[in-house]
Structure formats: structure tokens, C-alpha cells
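seq:
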Amino acid sequence: AWFADYRTNQNQHGSPLYVDGVLYVSTARNVVHAYDARDGKELWTYHPNMIPNPNLGLVNRGLAAWNGKIYMGQLDAKLVAIDAKTGKAAWTVDTVPEDLGLPEAMRKQYSITMAPRVAKGKVFVGGSGGEFGARGWIAAYDAETGKEVWRFWTVPGDPANGPPEGPHLEA
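struct:
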């Protein structure tokens, strides 16, 4: 019935997301397109303002939707909520802020390539970069504000730096 070009020939790993008559597609370098599902008319395009880590690739694996927002993990390790009607960022949060206490060299190795998941008003996402020495984690963020609700470290920190970040990491 219709088709759309993404204006890139780079790899695409995400699947389209259909919500209320609109198809949302995340493409290489975290560009998001919204199309009217009936006729293919492009409604808006979101271009992130970021500098991705070139070691971690240029693709993401999809989007999530909840309560009028489209959520995407970005290649610069930020999580963004995009207004589904306008294509403008409602909020953006750095998922590896300085106050985590990670060394600067490790913080620069993170990316988010997974598709976020949303349930009960929380956005769930995990960081990529373990192949470069980054510690694994999964975190939940408030879907309305982007405020971190909790973080689960899947890889323990250096025991010389103090106790683990939760009972799940204790020996």
C-alpha cells in the first residue's frame, strides 16, 4: 500500500512499533520516524543531539511506548522520552551519571542498544559496553519524569572500594 525510505543505508535492527494509527521506527544513529499507518505520510522525525561511541556500533533495537510517549535508549547512553504527537524530546536522562562513582574511562564505554520496556509507569533499560569493561546494570526510570527509580548491578564493583551495591551481589 505504501513504503518509506529511512534516508540511510546503515544497518537497521529495530522492528516498527504501531500505536493508535501511527508506525514508529528507530533507525541507525537513533533517528526515529513517525508515519501515518494508513497512507505512509511522515508525521515527524526525531534527530538526537549526541556523539555516539563509535566502538559500540550505530544501531538500536527498537522503541517502547506508554502514555503518549515513545522511549528509546541512545548510543550515548541516554534514555529519551519523545512526545508521540510532536516528535520533540519530553525528557532525556543520562543513565551513567557521574554520581554513580564509576571511573570516567568506564562511563565513556556505555551505550544503550536494547529496546526499552515499559510497565506500570516505569521504563526498564540496561547498558551496553561489557566488552569494553563497563559494569552491567538494569535500571528503572519513572516514565513521566525520567527520574531513576532503582538500579540493579549485574556485575559487582571492585570489593576494595567498599561493600557491594545490594544484597544480590554479596558473596
